[in-house]
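It would be a great kindness if you could assist me with a short task in structural biology. Thank you for your consideration; the sequence and its tokens are set out here.
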Amino acid sequence: MRRNWIIALLLAALTLALYWPVRQFDLIHFDDPLLLTECPEVQAGLTWASVKWAFTSVVIANWQPVTNLSFLAVSQFFGIAPGAHHLANAILHAANAGLLFLLLRRLTNFTWRSAAAAAIFAWHPLRVESVAWIAERKDVLCAFFFLLALLAYARWAKRDECCVMREKTAPSRITHHASGFWLALFFFALALLSKPMAVTLPFVLLLLDLWPLKRFTIYDLRFTICKRLALEKGPFFALMLLFCAVTYWVQHDYAAMTPWEKLGLAPRVANAISSYLAYPAQLFWPLNLAAIYPFPKSYDVTQTVLKAALLLAVSLGCLTQLARRPWLVVGWFWYLGTALPIIGLVQVGEQAMADRYTYLPLIGPVVALVWTAAEFFSRQRGGKIISIATTILILSALAALSARQLQYWRNTIALFEHNVAVTPGNSSAQFTLGLGFEHAGDTNRAIVCYRTAKMIEPREFQNRRSLASLLAKAGSFAAAEAEYQSLLADEPTEYLDHLGLAGLLAAQGRADESRVELNETVRLNPDCFEALNNLAWELATSPRAEIRDGPRAVQLAQHACELTQFRKTIFLGTLAAAQAEAGKFDDAIATAQRACDLAAKNGETMLLQKNRELLARYRQHQTAQE
């Protein structure tokens, strides 16, 4: 037992050493800001309000309260610096390496096979995306609790492994040594609350019952035994169904799922079949990995049929080995089952596949391959030495490839320059590369990327919207206006286009035209707080008396502040100006003082100075525009 813990800690330490460079990595401008720099709750750390947010908010179309709490905890002690959050992912991944070894060792009693499988899992380049991408905390955290659930279940099942096989049962096996069973259920719930992909765990438990727990065998598939094994997992299946329903509702409600009219059944099935083969291929040949794999424009029917036939042949081949090599069945069907939620039949997002989706599913094939290789080498002369040398060579190669892949994730530009290179014609990768250049201050290269993305996919409106916005910031007003007008011709009811055009017109001093666009934005989206604030400021401070409308300005500004929970200094300043215009100077003074306090707290020097000047005017019963 002590040796096992030493091996587990060594695996974790080596894994952490491999990923240690992430402490110096930057944010990836692809979801990361939504969880850190643009999330006031995470910035606040562990407060009652932020904990409530963690349990009640949907983040990037996912309900993931335990993952949210992990962000709060790291932020509480280390702030929102990217390095600390990157290291949190790396530490969890290192812990998962140790846990997988302990799990396999407990299940099989094979020490070095378990260590090899755990190391291959942890050091494979396919793991890099889940570890080096802060937003994928949910991957490593879900796997952490998933493995703990399996470990608790294995401990429980090992204690009573004879009961089911002999069929001399008490009414319920759960009542004996029940703590391990309920502990497994508890960890399963935490895994689901980290990422709903853990829903397949009950089926994994049934596979483990077959091998290596051997609670039933191919020669003992009586209905009573199978029924009992399934029924004892009733609480697990109940949780699974509950979270399937919650996840479907959340992702459907937040429009994360691709509509069937946009992507039909045939391309989904074809992509699923292709992905089912592509992931094992990447296991053997982990080159040209990317953050975004574009969805294919079309599929060859003959190739799809052949791929489906190959999948069927592999499945049947594994089944024929059930009696002699049950790990092949368990490993392969572990993969097929755990990959089902992310294989694309229910399409979420734009990607055809993703490296992060392999974090749990490829554990099964890795175990099957290691056990098969160990069996093969055990029959060869000098097999032990050959197997050790082969293992060292493979692990060294995987670690080297992971170290190289890791360097692409040091920042957005490095990652998506690589992504563009390995997936030509990828509009999403070009767009995100443009974001990287834009945040780095390289406006010209960002514009080039946005224009390239537009040429590849003219109907991707977010690409064009970002292009128009950046052209406006660069002072290319005519080109920016032409882009916005083109967008509005294609999607006249998109409030973001009206909002962007309003800002562009205001920057050119075309206040009347800007106000028209702001009113249209608010009509299309009454909760667009930026439009509410900008329109309120115009109605409160316009130099033209016929334009000013204090009561409406108060209504708009109040709503904008409510939507942002009174946490934006500039919105509070607008509300104060609106109250002054409406003649409510006492309210204006109180609100302006609140804006000053918030600006001082946030270190917003310019806003603090401006609000102090306005506060002095309100105390003299003067409006902001006087």
In short: DSSP finds 31 helices and no strands in the chain. Residues 596 and 611 are 6 Å apart (CA to CA). The two ends are 79 Å apart (CA to CA).
